[in-house]
Amino acid sequence: MPVDGLGRDVVYSASWQPPVWVPFLLLVTACVVVFVLYKRERRSVGIFRCGLLICCRLATVGVVVFMLFGWMRREYQTVLPDLVVLIDNSKSMSHEDPLVDVDSRERLLRELRQVGLSNAARINLARLVLLERGELLFKRLASNYNLQLYHLVSGDRGQPTLTTGHAVRAIVADGKSSQLGDRVRELLDYQRGRETVAMVVFSDGITTEGELLSEVAEDARQQGVPLYVVQLGNSRSLRDLRISDLVADRTVFPHDLVTVSVNLHAAGFSVADVHVRLREEGTSTPVTQAVISLNANQSRRVELSFRPDVEGVFNYVVEVDPQTEEQELANNQLSYTLVVQDYRIHVLFVQDYPSYEWRYLTTLLGRTLQRNASPGQSIELTTVLHQAEAEFVAESTMTLDTLTNEILDPKEIDVVVFGDVDPTRMSQELMERLRQFVVEHGGGSHFSQGRDLPH
């Protein structure tokens, strides 16, 4: 048995190493002499006895010639070559593939129970190969090679796991990602300059990030490391109906149209007339729903629209019914929080000169009513018009010269709308204040193209 990666190498060598023709000549001469002598005595000796004596004489001559070489047996202590074993412990390895043949399934479960495993998950199939028949294969590999056991998803990327049966049983398939190609390349780089007889990979072949295993196989060949892949599980895609990529407004006014858009994907099977529902958390009655049909491995964008009519903070759930043989149910729903509030939006409208667009926007924004049917307007408008008549300035607006930093107070202004404004009329200090208003305080800004502001 090797100790600390050391092995024993036995070498047989001869102290006498003559040319090849010398022992050959001795054997031929001995054979000729023996045959000539017994040919003369054939009349007095029976055929069977004569053949037996000839064989004995020739065997004696062969032993003598063999001893002339002076064979010696020498033992050397050597470093065992590395055998790298990579076990995929990503979450997909916890899946248990169904077996159609009942007899095969019963036989497999019986073998798993013999090594203390409860189900036919993919990670247990990898354990079974190494641990069956009293860990015979595992012990044989550990005795002939410096066995290096690695996990695919591991916090300690540089060190192998202890090469014991207990370490194999302790592997948990809980990895959140499967970077199979990247991990194999990392181990190839680590083994560079070390004698490596092979790299054995136990995996279902699923790669979620990084390089594919097929892309790294060429590098393994160039490095002279044989790469053996033990494929586990079913080649058919897992049956999974999932919702992802939710896009929707987070803050709206009462009676605004809210559209919640999600991506619905069917992996490994087709679905017909599946209900995608939007409901409020804690209730079973859907606010709105849609009926969707998908082919296998197809994605579709689903939009659910509704109008909230009261203020408040609402937690919604977008969900789809679980399907038969679906394993992953956590991705069948997504949570969504919507804030519905009714308050006045303070808008600062800056324009250099009066125009049709300026008059239209000021009239439109000034007449927008609140959405809850209460008296008053939902937008409080402040205008800045540089080229304005004196009586107009006194009534309803201020000029660009009167625009100070205090007006851009984020507590007083929500949105700044710039019409056609000559940027040279605004000071550097005011532009910096506007940048802080948008970037640091989260205010809104809008710029309209015009004569003095072409782009």
Description:
This protein has ten helices and 19 strands. With 455 residues, the chain is of the alpha/beta class. It has four domains: 71 residues, no CATH class; 150 residues, Rossmann fold (3-Layer(aba) Sandwich), CATH 3.40.50.410; 101 residues, Sandwich (Immunoglobulin-like); 103 residues, Rossmann fold (3-Layer(aba) Sandwich). A five-stranded mixed β-sheet has the order 8-14-13-10-11, with no helix packed on it. A five-stranded parallel β-sheet has the order 17-16-15-18-19. Helix 1 packs antiparallel against helix 2 and helix 6 packs parallel to helix 7.
Largest sheet: 5 strands, mixed
Main sheet strand line-up = 8-14-13-10-11
CATH topology of the largest domain: Rossmann fold
Structural class: alpha/beta
According to CATH, the homologous superfamily of the largest domain is von Willebrand factor, type A domain
Distance between the termini: 80 Å
**How many β-strand runs?**
19
**How many structural domains does the protein architecture include?**
4
Mean pLDDT: 80
Please compute the radius of gyration using only Cα atoms: 42 Å
- Number of helical stretches of at least 4 residues: 10
* Secondary-structure arrangement, i.e. CATH architecture of the largest domain: 3-Layer(aba) Sandwich
Which parts are unreliable, with pLDDT below 50 for 5 consecutive residues or more? none
SSE run: EHHEEHHEHHEHEEEEEEEEEEHEHEEHE
Helix content: 25-40%
Beta-strand percentage? 25-35%
CATH class of the largest domain equals Alpha Beta
Shape: elongated
